Amino acid sequence: MLKRLSLVVLVMVLFFGLISFSTGCKPKEQAVEEIKIGGVGPVSGEAATFGVSTREGEELAIEEWNAKGGVLGKKIKLVFEDDKGDPAEAATVYTKLIDQDKVVGIVGTVMSKCSLAGAPIAQAKGVPMISPTSTNPKVTEVGDYIFRACFIDPFQGTVGANFAYNILGVKKAGCVFDIGNDYTKGLSEFFRDQFVKLGGQIVGFESHPTGATDFKAQLTNLIKAGAELIYISDYYNDAGLIMKQARELGFKGYFLGGDGWDSPKLVEIGGQAVEGGFFTNHFSKDDQRPEVQEFVKKYKEKFNHDPDALAALAYDAMNIMITAIKNAGSTDGAKIRDAMKNIQFNAVSGLITFDANRNPIKSAVIIEIKNGQQVYKTTVNP
Amino acid sequence: MEKIFNLQQLINGIQLGSIYALIALGYTMVYGIVRLINFAHGDFFMIGAYASYFIILFATLRGYHIPVVIIFLISMGAGAGAAVLANRIAYKPLRYKPRLSALITAIGVSMFIEYIFSALPVIGPSYRSFPNEQFIESKIFTIGTTTISNYAIIDVLVSAGLMIFLTYLVKYTRVGMAMRAVSQDKDAAKLMGIDIEKIITITFIVGGAFAGAAGLLTGVSYPRIFPYMGILPGLKAFIAAVLGGIGNIPGAMLGSYIMGISETFATSYRSLLGEGIAFAILILVLLFRPQGLLGETIAEKV
After folding, report:
1. Are A311 and A299 contacting, i.e. CB atoms less than 8 angstroms apart?
2. Residues B169-227: pLDDT tens digits?
3. Residue A117 needs a FRET pair 20 to 30 A away by CA distance; which of A307, A370, B69, B198 works?
């Protein structure tokens, strides 16, 4: 009995030892006057690089403000939480940030399905929230405290369809998307609608469950139906696998996707198959505008790698939040919200003004994957 | 008709079925001998995938060339090692306790492995891309309008080879004979001088090794791995084992191919149906043939 008990104790010690080792020790809170802003993103899970980029973009923005003396005479502190790409987890961390950490605003989160879970909480508690990258239209429809720093999917889907039909000259296209994700489903629908409107034909509209790894049945259908282009609205993880399997099945046509492709992992997973693929995005580091080049330089100095669109938008969103606090002259939620509505901001991802639905009006870029690198192709205005 | 049945979809289904079969065999063997549904089996599959991931990564980094067979043996060894440990630590002490305790323990072991892997800094909860091109370069063969990748061929051949090996082991060797004896009547087997614990350990080794091989094949064919990757394939393989008749080795193979092929065809007919078909099949089988397709009804003697 004693032997077994000691075994159990050993396992427990090992387990908790590992956990504490992996999370590290957190420094004690300091009792300094500061303004807390919440950040949320998926640092782990199916879109982990999105969360990391988002956190880095937010950190950079806050560091710059603090170097200039903060806002309203106080330093700014980022409280960043991981939503793991899970809506249930997002709801938990939103509640934690608002009730426990008493943040004045939230910059987050990345995935539309998670923002849709977090936004009602922020709205109900009167805490302004700006999502850097949730492109599904429903997100800001939650209420007047909810903003975003990116374009929305009807625009992104339309740009994709126009590009496929007018520039690539494709007449038959097929779609693959994750049925359990508001973003991928919505984006595919907007692409389909516009493509059909232009006179193209959608030969297949195939979904897959979240977490699937075998897409061959769906892809075989699209290929047999004669698709010249496959529109993949999935995030990079699934998109890489889908492209790989499509090529294995002998698909010779084009791949086109949305901003969910923006990760170095896309090439890592998809390998040779993603070569020549196109996707619509918010930002390209090769854009020659001075705001972009300045941001790329600063980002590279701090993190030793190039920023992606997620980082750029998180940087923009954080700047919008802090500027709104400054303009409001207060940390009161309603006042920040009103200041944000009237903001005009020359951001890295373009000039941002909000329309009546708190969505910014801005342009999109199209990026091609060449030799495993993202190459800027063109900018499309709304 | 073309939409429902075509050769390409059949190949896709057979590839999927081969991987299910390797996992299902472990489930069914352990059940046949210990009467335990080892829910942690899907996690041995995950461990096998990670073992080969690290070995291939290490070899690429150092510029070593490790033969494919060695990599296979390493992932099989990792799966087998995990299975033996789970048996030794968690299942053996509960051997003569109520069966429900062992079942709940199996679920616990499964979750423990998944969460500890997510918590380990070297593994973490995120997806990783499996270096399959470094393992074997992909090639695609085209026959008419049908294409087949060398990965699919490897999946089918390796699982067929392992299944032949298993059939030989169980039918024509002394160990196999002992396994069959233990599965039929534990007490009588003991009286015949068979070391039951040894046979159980061997069963876990073989089952775990098969799961490890399936992990490697999955990593190669669907190059994306994460700590929870074993849950869904594990569940489906379990259903395949029940479909064929749990405890019955040819049944598990048959069940797995039926599962893989029907899943592919259902998905191709209507993309939403695919995932549900597995569970629909399970309910139908339990209603009309609870002992499974090849299972036998054994009258309980009182």
Report:
1. yes
2. 999 999 999 999 998 888 899 999 999 999 999 999 999 999 999 999 999 998 889 99
3. A307
A214: closest chain B residue by CA = B222
Query: Are B116 and A244 in contact (CB < 8 Å)?
Result: no
Peptide bond into A184 cis (omega under 30): no
Provide mean pLDDT across the span A48-58: 92
Half-sphere exposure for A255 (CA within 13 Å, toward CB) = 32
Q: Give the pLDDT mean for A32-51.
A: 88
pLDDT more than 70, % of chain A: 91
Q: What is the pLDDT of residue A370?
A: 92
Q: What is the DSSP string of B115-160?
A: HHHHHSTTT-SS-EE--HHHHS---EEEETTEEEEHHHHHHHHHHH
Which chain B residues are within 8 Å of A45, Cβ to Cβ?
A: 125-127
Q: What is the full DSSP assignment across A188-225?
A: HHHHHHHHHHHT-EEEEEEEE-TT----HHHHHHHHHT
Which residues of chain A lie closer than 8 angstroms to B275, CB-CB?
209, 212
Structure token pair of residue A247 = 């090529």
How is residue A379 annotated by DSSP?
E
C-alpha radius of gyration, chain A, whole number: 22
Contact A83, A93 (CB under 8 A): yes
Interface of A to B at Cβ within 8 Å reads: 4, 7, 11, 15, 18-19, 21-22, 44-46, 48, 84, 179, 206-209, 211-214, 216-218, 220-221, 224, 237, 240-241, 244-245, 247-250, 265, 268-269, 271
Residue A44: HSE in the Cβ half-sphere, 13 Å Cα cutoff: 15
The yes-or-no verdict on residue B159 having pLDDT over 50 is yes
pLDDT in tens, A116-138: 999 999 999 999 999 999 988 89
pLDDT digits (tens, 9 = 90+) for A4-32: 666 666 666 666 555 555 444 444 444 45
What letter represents residue B219's amino acid?
G
- The answer to whether B81 and B44 are in contact (CB under 8 A) is no
Distances (CA, A) of A297 to A61, A263, A285, B251: 13, 19, 10, 62
Q: Is A146 left (phi over 0), alpha (psi -120 to 50) or beta?
A: beta
Burial (CB count <10 Å: 0-12, 13-18, 19+), residue B80: buried
A211 contacts B140? CB cut-off 8 A: no
CB A376 within 8 A of CB A165: no
For residue B266, CA distances in Å to A17, B205, B231, B238, B294 come to 46, 35, 21, 19, 24
Contacts (Cβ under 8 Å, ≥6 apart) of B287: none
Pairwise CB contact (< 8 Å): A213 & B224? yes
